[in-house]
Structures are given as structure tokens and as C-alpha cells.
Structure to design on (346 residues):
């Protein structure tokens, strides 16, 4: 078969001169690359859609289930037939959740900042799951407060967030790992786009960067045992962690603990301007459809081939994640343009 008949077969015009032969050869390459890309995308989508079997024999432990993503995830996993163990911080949260779910969902009181509470939950879970082990651990519990300019924080302000979002995730994972290994299951860690782009002072961004790196190290260390580690990176959603009233109350508290010298360097109007801009941004970006996040968590638990990272929400996919690959000066300039200037800035 000569090249002319190949070109004709592919719909290209037969060429005669040297130049047009090169052009047709380029077209052939293009066609080959496009075909490969389409086939690769079809194979990826097919692989991504494959699900595990025997869901109703698998146990999943979720932390922070009183409200928000954790609460919705438990209800959805329960409907799917999973044996859900919901870690709730309060009795009221546990009772409310039980009222809206089936008899298979069990709740356990859990404070991820307390070693005793984590140990107690693990012993109870070990009895519950038996020889099968634990299929999934979703480290979802988290808090955002206090958030604000770094200079306004004391060490205990950083620690109050790190204790829940960072140390809590690490201790829960290490404690429950033997049960996960037994089931060759999954660990699903909830990070944030603020674990990719550090846009706020306080412990929140630090803790979410820590969750990202802890999860990466863990995934590389334990894949030998058939355990998978997935990271969820939600954008901004309307939940407890983005609720404006507590965020603003905490900003006032931080302001009130500053010395008069530091206050003077920011000026009288700074706090009000800061709060106004924060309100404007949060109202503009926060999405109320929490299922965008729980869909990712469900995929991580149900898929035969879970992804390493899931970005949830349009702001994450189109803004925050692309921004995280840009030079730091782009984010520096963007924030400089948006945030208020202190009175004594140079
Ligand atoms: N919403 C967002 O825009 C967003 C974006 C990116 C990532 N995330 C992450 O998503 C996760 C879930 O947050 P959410 O948005 O669903 O907010 P949420 O409704 O406030 O959920 C967080 C849950 O964690 C619980 N919790 C707090 N401290 C705890 C502790 N020491 N031990 C156990 N549980 C504790 C909270 O209980 P109480 O309500 O009783 O305090 C609450 O039920 C967090 O890790 C958060 O950082 C959220």
C-alpha cells in the first residue's frame, strides 16, 4: 500500500509536491495523536466508572459528622448500603443524625484532639468490624477559626486549629491504620484548596498544607499493603467553617488582644474594611451544593480505582488549582489588590 492511498483512506487529498507531502504527513501525525487521546480518554472514563462489590459488607468511619460534608456523606453512604460509623463531636449531633438514617448507621462520640477519645473509638470500631477490618476512614473533622492576619495570632490561636485539622488527622490515621490494612481499604483525607494556595493567616492553611503532605507521604509508604490514600480538595462551600458570624466574632477577639502600638500600625478602619471585604468574597464564592464534595468522597470509597486527588467545586477547578501552579508573585499581587492596606504601610 503506498502513502497516497493511505492519505486518501484517511480523507486527505493525495499530494504530489514535496511541500504538500510534508503537510499530509503532519496531518497523519495529528490524526494519530488525536485518535490516541480520544481512546485514552474513553479508557480512563471506563476505568474511573468501575465500582467495588459487596458494599453492604464494608464499614466506613467518618469523623466530624455533626454537620456539613461529614453529615451529608454519612446519610448518602447509609443509603448506598455501607455500614457507616459516624464520629460525632456532640450527643445532639449524633442523635440528629441517627434520626435521619437507617438502623445500620452507628454513631460514636469522638473528639479528634483527645487521644483517649480516639483510642476508645478505635477499640469500639475493632469490635464492630471484626475480622473484616475497616474499609474506609474519612478524616473530615475540621475547624477554621481563628482566621485573620498572621500578626494578630498568638501561638495558641495557631494551635487550636492545628490540633483538629493536622494532629487530629495524623493521630486518627495512625490509630486506625491496622484496621484499614486488614481490609486493604482506603483513607480519605479532607484537605482544601487552601492547602494548595496560602491565602489566609492563622492555622488553617498551614494545617491543610500539612494534610496534603502527610497524605502524599502515607500513600507512598503504604501502597505495598493495598491501602489507597485519597485527598479531597474542596473550594469554598456554605458550611460551619465558612460561616461569617463566628469568623467575624473571632476577628474582633483577635483585634482586642492586640497592643495599642500594633493597632495603630493598622489604623482604626482596618478591621471594618477587612471584615467587609471578607464578607463580599465569601458571599460571592461560597457554593451551597455540598454534594459536589460528597460525590468526590463517595467516588474515593466506591471506585475500583480511586483517584489520588479530587478537586470539588468550580472555584477549585477553574481558579484555585490553576492558581496553585502559578508563580507566587501572581497570588501576592492579587491579594495586595484585594485586601485593605494598613494605615502605616510603606
Ligand atoms: N466548607 C468549606 O468551604 C471547606 C472547604 C475546604 C475544606 N473544608 C473542610 O471540610 C471539612 C468539613 O468541614 P465542613 O465544611 O463540613 O464544616 P462543618 O460543618 O463545620 O464540619 C466540621 C465538623 O467537624 C466537627 N469538629 C470540629 N472539631 C472537632 C473535633 N475536635 N473532633 C471531632 N469533630 C470536630 C464539627 O463539629 P461542631 O460543628 O460541633 O464544631 C463539625 O461537625 C473540614 O476539614 C474543613 O476544613 C471545608
Amino acid at each position: 500500500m503506498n502513502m497516497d492511498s493511505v492519505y486518501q483512506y484517511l480523507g486527505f487529498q493525495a499530494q504530489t509536491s514535496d511541500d504538500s507531502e510534508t503537510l499530509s504527513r503532519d496531518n497523519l501525525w495529528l490524526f494519530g495523536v488525536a485518535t490516541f487521546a480520544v481512546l485514552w480518554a474513553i479508557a480512563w472514563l471506563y476505568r474511573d466508572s468501575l465500582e467495588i462489590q459487596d458494599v453492604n459488607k464494608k464499614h466506613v468511619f467518618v469523623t466530624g459528622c455533626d454537620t456539613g460534608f461529614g453529615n451529608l456523606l454519612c446519610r448518602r453512604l447509609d443509603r448506598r448500603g455501607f455500614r457507616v460509623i459516624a464520629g460525632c463531636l456532640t450527643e445532639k449531633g449524633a442523635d440528629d443524625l441517627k434520626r435521619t438514617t437507617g438502623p445500620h448507621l452507628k454513631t460514636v462520640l469522638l473528639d479528634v484532639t483527645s487521644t483517649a477519645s480516639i483510642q476508645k473509638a478505635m477499640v469500639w470500631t475493632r469490635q464492630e468490624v471484626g475480622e473484616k477490618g475497616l474499609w474506609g476512614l474519612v478524616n473530615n473533622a475540621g475547624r477554621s477559626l481563628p482566621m485573620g492576619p498572621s500578626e494578630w495570632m498568638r501561638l495558641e490561636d495557631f494551635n487550636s486549629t492545628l490540633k483538629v485539622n493536622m494532629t487530629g488527622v495524623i493521630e486518627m490515621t495512625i490509630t486506625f491504620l491496622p484496621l484499614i490494612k486488614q481490609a486493604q481499604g482506603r483513607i480519605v483525607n479532607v484537605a482544601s484548596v487552601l492547602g494548595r494556595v496560602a491565602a489566609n493567616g492563622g492555622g488553617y492553611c498551614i494545617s491543610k498544607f500539612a494534610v496534603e503532605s502527610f497524605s502524599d507521604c502515607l500513600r507512598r509508604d503504604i501502597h505495598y499493603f493495598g491501602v489507597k490514600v485519597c485527598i479531597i480538595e474542596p473550594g469554598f462551600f456554605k458550611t460551619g467553617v465558612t460561616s461569617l458570624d463566628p469568623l467575624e466574632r473571632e476577628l474582633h477577639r483577635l483585634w482586642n488582644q492586640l497592643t495599642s502600638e500594633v493597632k495603630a500600625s493598622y489604623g482604626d478602619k482596618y478591621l471594618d474594611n477587612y471584615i467587609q471585604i471578607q464578607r463580599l468574597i465569601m458571599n460571592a464564592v461560597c457554593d451551597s451544593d455540598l454534594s459536589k464534595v460528597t460525590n468526590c468522597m463517595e467516588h474515593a470509597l466506591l471506585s475500583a480505582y480511586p483517584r489520588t486527588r479530587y478537586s470539588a467545586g468550580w472555584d477549585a477547578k477553574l481558579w484555585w488549582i490553576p492558581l496553585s501552579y502559578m508563580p507566587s508573585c501572581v497570588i501576592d499581587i492579587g491579594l495586595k489588590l484585594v485586601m485593605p492596606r494598613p494605615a502605616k504601610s510603606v
Q: What stands out?
A: The chain has a mean pLDDT of 94.
